[in-house]
Design goal:
The complex is a heterodimer of chains A (about 220) and B (about 300).
Chain A: E1 4-9, H1 15-28, E2 33-38, E3 49-52, H2 57-66, H3 70-78, E4 83-86, H4 88-93, E5 94-99, E6 103-104, E7 113-119, E8 129-133, E9 143-147, E10 152-156, E11 161-167, E12 170-176, E13 179-182, H5 193-204, H6 206-215
Helix pairs in contact in A: 1-5
Chain B: E1 14-15, H1 18-27, E2 32-36, H2 39-47, E3 52-55, H3 60-66, H4 75-84, E4 89-94, H5 98-107, E5 111-115, E6 136-140, H6 143-151, E7 156-159, H7 169-186, H8 190-200, H9 204-213, E8 219-221, H10 229-237, E9 243-245, H11 247-250, H12 255-267, H13 272-280
Parallel strand pairs in B: 2-3, 2-9, 3-4, 4-5, 5-6, 6-7, 7-8
Helix pairs in contact in B: 7-9, 8-9, 10-12, 12-13
The chains are: A alpha/beta (about 220), B alpha/beta (about 300).
């Protein structure tokens, strides 16, 4: 198996948007590969990287727990599989989660990123917005940030976490080794640079060759 | 991608853009939005995996039974729910009732349902939804209604079905009409598309965009009569992006289990083994008692409101 297979966790949320932009990015990069839907835990064995889309983190987390995907995704992450979470994906990847209004949350999460995330950090849908973001790691041109009832990163819990972008006083994108978590939605735009960055991580990852060998 | 990138560099945040409003609806996809009337029900919904709750004064089945004029829910009750759950909170306003919508927007709810379940305030017009920061969802029975609502600024659609009946038949009819007409659009010439735009009374660009995408430019959920996991899975199979469950959960005798089972069936609609497992979580004797649509008098039909 030489073509790249990038999974999109499809328990709920804007899955088709991520499938479309990932396929578009693969084409732009001239790579052979495809984005695939991941609904069953066994599918996790067949992919080189995983995207966790936007949606409701409580819904996705409960479903992932019920169908035994939490530990499986965690193990894949520890084995080096690149994972990219957007909005609710960031919440699910965080070690600690708190809601801006309700407080400490007891929802099922993956607990992979050493950060504390605040849900609904900017307010309700009325306060959702678009803004140009500076993300130096992917280039000089501003990135269209689409924030929808978005979370933000309140604190960083280890020095392995690198801040990729901030807006005002809030951290909105981080990377920790093979993991990226962002508070906004590149999949609602046609700017493919963050997906390209993620696919670049997959290409460099030793995890890719291991999976390819296991499946060939 | 249907939504283009931001051309100019934005120094200041832009609120309530088409992308932000339609994007909110996209985040709901594959999920279940549940009707609730109080905090306790809202918490059951959230714990069962609902993606959002819709707060009403009465469940649609009770609106039907009570008769009289059905209005927007008491804002104090909506506020209570907003204070106790982390998932999005939606509420209904009457068709054409601009002021109820403004009140709900001021309250800060996440989406307004301009709904035929409430008594229409305007027989001829819907609300002009473009000027609102909050996104709207509207009901539709066919492609014409769907496109007219989008042209008025709706960010999300749902089938009307026949609310409060526990009978999925009308929702099935409506989603098939919408999906079928979209498939037909794809084969039409420019001239025929123009004819459709005239027939539907909507801008030609919207008809062309829908034909090109092969789907509506906004998310389309199923609603109106969904009462079981099998109903939810059926609507997903027919092409719905997600489901609203009105009376089906809290008019049943097993709301928590039923809510959870419908969430599971909506995610795994394409895996009959899991839909079976979800169906076993509940029992049919606890389902709400349904109404055969044929027994309804014309004036009892909610779906004919607001075309």
């Amino acid at each position: 198996m030489r073509t790249l297979r990038i999974g999109v966790l499809a328990l709920q949320g804007d899955v088709s948007e991520h499938i479309d932009i990932t396929n578009a990015t693969l084409r732009e990069m001239g790579l052979e590969g495809e984005a695939v839907i991941v609904k069953e835990k066994d599918r996790l064995d067949e992919i080189h990287g995983l995207i966790i889309p936007g949606g409701e983190s409580t819904t996705i987390g409960r479903m992932a727990e019920r169908y035994e995907m939490i530990s499986k995704i965690k193990n894949a992450a520890f084995a080096g599989m690149p994972i990219f979470g957007t909005c609710s994906g960031l919440i699910l990847m965080a070690k600690k989660v708190r809601d801006a209004k309700i407080g400490e949350m007891n929802q099922p999460t993956l607990g992979l990123l050493d950060v504390e995330v605040i849900r609904n950090a900017f307010g309700r849908q009325r306060e959702s917005f678009e803004i140009s973001l500076k993300i130096p790691k992917i280039g000089k041109n501003p990135f269209p940030g689409v924030f929808i009832r978005a979370p933000a990163i309140a604190s960083i819990l280890s020095k392995d976490v690198e801040v990729l972008a901030s807006y005002e006083d809030k951290i909105v994108a981080v990377q920790q080794n093979n993991l990226i978590g962002i508070a906004f939605h590149p999949e609602l735009t046609d700017d493919t640079r963050l997906h390209e960055f993620f696919i670049g991580m997959i290409l460099k990852s030793p995890f890719k060759d291991r999976i390819s060998k296991a499946n060939s | 991608m249907t939504i283009t990138t931001i051309e100019t560099k934005m120094e200041n945040p832009l609120f309530g853009t088409v992308r932000v409003k339609r994007g909110f609806a996209r985040m709901q996809k594959g999920g279940v939005i549940m009707d609730v009337t109080n905090v306790e029900q809202a918490q059951i919904a959230e714990d069962s995996g609902a993606i959002a709750v819709m707060v009403l004064d009465k469940l649609p089945a009770d609106v039907r039974a009570a008769g009289g004029v059905a209005r927007m829910c008491d804002p104090k009750r909506i506020q209570e729910v907003m204070d106790h759950v982390t998932i999005p909170v939606m509420a209904k306003c009457r068709i054409g009732h601009y002021m109820e919508a403004k009140i709900l927007e001021a309250l800060g709810i996440d989406m307004i349902d301009e709904s035929e379940v409430l008594t229409p305030a305007d027989d001829a017009h819907h609300i002009d939804k473009w000027e609102f920061t909050v996104p709207f969802v509207n009901g539709c029975r066919d492609l014409g209604e769907a496109l007219r609502r989008i042209a008025e600024g709706a960010s999300m659609l749902r089938t009307k079905g026949e609310a409060g009946t526990g009978n999925v038949a009308e929702a099935v009819k409506h989603i098939k009409l919408v999906m079928g007409k979209i498939r037909e659009l794809k084969g039409l010439s420019e001239e025929q598309l123009l004819d459709m735009a005239k027939e539907y009374r909507v801008p030609i660009d919207l008809v062309k965009e829908t034909a090109k995408l092969g789907r509506l430019p906004v998310v389309n959920f199923a609603a109106g009569g969904i009462a079981t996991p099998a109903d939810a899975a059926l609507m997903m199979h027919l092409g719905a992006d997600g489901v609203f469950v009105g009376s089906g959960i809290f008019k049943s005798k097993d709301p928590a289990k039923r809510a959870e089972s419908i969430v599971i069936a909506t995610t795994y609609w394409d895996d009959p083994k899991i839909v079976l497992e979800a169906s076993k979580m509940i029992s049919e004797e606890n389902s709400m008692i349904g109404i055969d649509i044929k027994t309804l008098k014309p004036e009892q039909m909610m779906q004919v409101r607001g075309v």
